Amino acid sequence: MDAITARLQEAGRVEVAEIAARLGVAVETVRRDLRRLEQEGKLRRTRGGALPAAPPPSAASAPSAAEDGGPLAALAAAALPLLPETGGSVLLDAGGPVDALAAALPGHASGRELLVATASVTAAAALSRYPSLAVYNLGGMVRPGSSAQLGEWARQELARLRFDIAFLAPGGVDPEAGLTDPSAERAALHEAMLASARRVVVLAPAGALGRAGFARFAALEAAHEVIVPADVPAPLAAALAAAGPAVRRAAPHPPADGGLAPPDPAVR
Q: Which of 80, 107, 135, 258 is the most exposed place for a label (fewest CB within 10 A)?
């Protein structure tokens, strides 16, 4: 059960099928463990998975990446300098790393006029409070227990849009398996996001690295850049870079204005 709570803390959500495949156990075993953890007050079960025991903070009260100070905040801080200048367009995925980026974006790009589209209800609500940002929500079905939007509706919107840069947070980032997700529906949305952006940046927390999900949507070389935690082992970072994208390590303690750690000599 420790593996479940660790994954929940890292990703903000766990899915039964994903945990069962990851641990090599039966689905019913995972469901039983989730029931026990819920009884202990450590999580709350949802359809097909679980969320943290306490509801997530509202967009209005969510801490900025700098205030949060965790691993997702470090990835977000490393992504901030990659934002375009005034007049640029940005596509934001859904998920913990991208929601952290959305929380930090207004402070970094204060007064900068940007067009931002997102598949995250949380990100859209947080960013819509800033007059300099033109915020669009892709629409579609909201995945139960999360703020992520999926489905044909969102994919159709993406098919007619074009962005300067997209920030994605896939479920798996592996040198051989490429970019993957735990569901085919999520992978289909990510494939549409890739096709709509001139530049693609992948935010890869520790839980996604070296992991191959159920559905593959692209080779790793489809990403222009992958941002990884500061403590990623050098061999893994080198393997990621050899597969095509530039690899950057997030700073161990991100500065308030965001930034990238110096490139790893073994990677660049």
A: 107
